[in-house]
Amino acid sequence: MSDLESVYRDAITTRLMRRMSHALQHDLKSPIQGIQWALELALKSVAAEGTDPKARAQVEKAVDMARKELARLDKTSRAFLNDSGITDDTEQRFDLGEVVRETVRHFVTDAAMRNVRLTVDVPAVPVHVRGFRGGVSQAVLTCVLHALDSAPDGGLADVALKVEGEEAVIEIGDDALVPAGVDDPFGLGVLGIRLAQTFIESHGGVMRVTPRANGKRRRMCMAVPLDREPA
Amino acid sequence: MSDLESVYRDAITTRLMRRMSHALQHDLKSPIQGIQWALELALKSVAAEGTDPKARAQVEKAVDMARKELARLDKTSRAFLNDSGITDDTEQRFDLGEVVRETVRHFVTDAAMRNVRLTVDVPAVPVHVRGFRGGVSQAVLTCVLHALDSAPDGGLADVALKVEGEEAVIEIGDDALVPAGVDDPFGLGVLGIRLAQTFIESHGGVMRVTPRANGKRRRMCMAVPLDREPA
Question: Quick check: A45 and B39 CB within 8 A?
């Protein structure tokens, strides 16, 4: 299979999934709803007077545990349907700090397997921006992956989110040398970075890649406007 | 955005998701595991002697309901991770009847919105084949979608799975006229069908598209070898 052919195959996968979005959303949501009803029923079963208070307390504790896991599952599957391009990527206000933290968390195992140290530094308070969450998330994912893929064994990839004036700035540094050979033009790195830059810049942001030079590490930098609360 | 550019974008989505497969699998599985534990705890809470038998029966019923939904969710998310190209598509024995039924089920709403009648005819017994479930599923999906997209308003798309000798044969018929114009070379139809054919034929199957002619409807036909139980 040629490189371009594999690009086509991967594109078709996303397109098929997107066309099934209604059914897929339903398939993930409907059991979650069903479990919620079952948990309510369990609570009602021990709510009657005369029920042993200890049994009631234990069932309530179990239902509480299950509800927390269910909420986590619901949140995860929503983010997942959004970021995988299955549901429409609508313009929204979101916490860029959460996106950056989650992105890095998703690659902890990957980094460990490559023996690359991966660090993340995000403000403790939310950093709200407005835009297409899926597109921004993909841009961040692409840059983090590119850093991981290029860092040498024992190297470091560091991700930081900062607030600078009216902008949220994501900086990703790595130890990549300037590539000596020719990159795969259909690879995740070359294609992905180009698309990320196009996306960020067509949505009011700025993206630059500064190669390693003068003793400084390679840096990928994205800046997007903050969405401050009205005072 | 050019057509090819959108192909690249969609391909990157799949590639990013695939790279996060371990983390995504964990994120979907870990809450399911957590809910299972919580349900066990609820059962144990009412198992003690002296618990009101009615309350116990109701909690058991609720847990039973929740477990069924949980099993459904688990199955759905596994199929989903496989078919979306997120987890590796491993060679396995699977029921082609289930794949065909599920595929059609996923497009019932789509068909209704286009006012196309979509029918499915699958044997009542499992039709086992061996191969890459994700690839076969994508080929079937692509053909069903292509039939739906090409059928005129009020038209019919029919999907049938038959066993013929040592082969499982999927036939998809539609009322599509031979296209008058030039198809989008990067569209789901043209690209998808070409890739589906390449996939099916490189895995021991046969795929043909017979255009509408001589009063007969257009037919897309895929044949793959059966995997019979050893006698």
Answer: no
